[in-house]
Each structure stands twice: as structure tokens, then as C-alpha cells.
Amino acid sequence: RNTSGVLCICSPVPVGFLGQHLLRILLEKEDSLEEIRVFDKPRNIRGILSYKQNTHGSRLNYSHGDVSYSNLKQSIKKIKIACPLSYSLLYQHKRTKNVIKACVECGIECLLYTSSMEVVKGGKHLYTCSLRPTGIYGEGHQLIKDFYKQGVQRGVFALFTITIIKSVTYPLVYLGNVAWMHLLAAQALRERPEKVGGEAFYCYDDSPYKSYEDFNMVLFSEFNFRKARIPTMVLWFLAMFNDLMHWLLKPIYNYTPLLNSYTLAVVSTTFTVRTDKAERHFDYRPLYSWDECLARTKKWISTFPSENSKDC
User: Fold this and answer.
1) What is the count of structural domains for the chain?
2) How many angstroms separate the CA atoms of 223 and 252, rounded?
3) What are phi and psi of 213, to 5 degrees?
4) Which domain holds residue 107?
5) Where is the 3-beta hydroxysteroid dehydrogenase/isomerase domain positioned along the sequence (predicted)?
6) Coil, strand or helix: which one is 301?
7) Which of 117, 214, 231, 280 sits in a 20 to 30 Å window from 166, CA-based?
8) In the annotation, is 127 catalytic?
9) Which residue of the set 51, 113, 127, 284 is catalytic?
């Protein structure tokens, strides 16, 4: 695999999440990789340097700054594959344009873009493909920590429990398998660009289809959390109230509660993916089985502060 470098843009999500899994698998599986360049926000430097020190990270080089065209162009010189990992909703369009422009100007051969399940597009002058994780979980997921804290503080698992719609399910995917799909897609882009370029791929593995709250109950099965029975209408009024407060406080405070009209719509709607497209295009098969995904995530959860800890 003639890969001279990979650019991972982890903004605003620190390398401790999807980027960490991607870096780990790159270092473990890609022996011929000469260099990995990480371009991130300055506030994430501690996590990246810590990760480099605790792994065989001699090929890992870090730079930081805002995602401007000039900064990106300087960082991606002489690399062959760019892999931006950006989950910013407010500036994602502008940042994506900066990444594509810098890739074109620097002669980057392939662009692997991590998208969301809402929108995905290919490119015209650059071989690209989009990977679309429908819902992700695993070590480093901040929401899992937040759910745990909520359960400890209240003694109840009560984020979104919608009892009226019992059949709502979602396909959640383990982060390690998402990272593995990134690597296989990047290799396929270089070897078979006419087949993979311009395509969109949903990320999938063997994780069971469940609602968010039921899936979280599986992850936290060793704790005595119970579900709170909150009527859908009450959740709807709370979501509308939070939307209103967000709008009113926007000039002076960034009020961003987890429950709003958008998140309520997401957890109230079944989303189903049945596909083997990634396997057909670049021989993807999950690197981790469901049992391994669950065990690895639960092992990470077991490191959380105990119920009596003030850090919860």
C-alpha cells in the first residue's frame, strides 16, 4: 500500500473519539504507512500528545489551527490520502469546501469524507467517497458518559423513553468498525477509484437494532438503572420549550440542551439500513463481532467513577 500520509481533521471532536479509533487501527494494521498527520484544534493537543506517547506513534505528527484554507494547504502537502473527520454542524460546509480546495491545489489523489446520515455527496474533480455512520458507540463516546452520570444522579435511565412508539429502532455501529471501514475505503479509492469514487456507504456491523434507550440499557446492564416512563406529549412540550429557550438566550448564552425538536424527531423515527455495499465494493467485513464490541465498550464503562464518587 503506497500511502505516504493521511490527514485526519478531528474538529471539533477530539482524537479521543472516532479519530482515536482510526489512529489506533492505522498504527496496528498499516505497517507500510510512512506518516500520519493529525490537524486539529489547539484545545485538543493534550489528548493527541498523550496518545502519541502511549502508543507506537513515531509516525504520528501533529499540527493545530483553525480549519482555514491556508492552514490546511500547509498541512497536507505531499500526502496522498486526506481523511477529514469533522462533525461540526455550523461550519461544516465551509470547512469541507476548504478541505476539498486544499486537496485539489496540493494534488491530493483521494479524499475520504466522513459524512452523517442526513446528507452525502461525491466530487467531480477528485476521487471521493462518503462513509455514513448511522449511529455510533464505543470507547470515548461522551454521550455514554453523560447517560451514566444521569443514571447515577437520578437512579434512573430517563433520557428519551417514548413508550407510545414501541417499535422505533436504529442501526448503531461500533467505532472500531467505522474506523476499519475508513481504511478499507481509502485503499479501494487508490486501487479502484472508478468503482468506489463518487459512492456513499452506510457503515454497518453486527450490532443489534434497538432504540437508543434500549441499546443504552444493554451497555449499562450491570447497573441497576431503570427506565423512566415519560409520555411522548410531555417530551414534545419540553422539546419545544428548549427550542424557545435556545432562541431567546442565543444572544447571550449558548443554551444547547440534548432534548430539542430535532433529537426528539430522531428518536421517534425508525431508521433501517439493509446493505452489503461496502463488502461488494471493497470487501468490508466487521473487524469486531457484536460480542467483542459490547465487551470492549463495557470494559471502558467499568472505568467510570463509582456511584458514590463526586466526579459522577
Assistant:
1) 2
2) 39
3) -70, -35
4) 6-140+172-206+273-290
5) 121-228
6) helix
7) 117
8) yes
9) 127
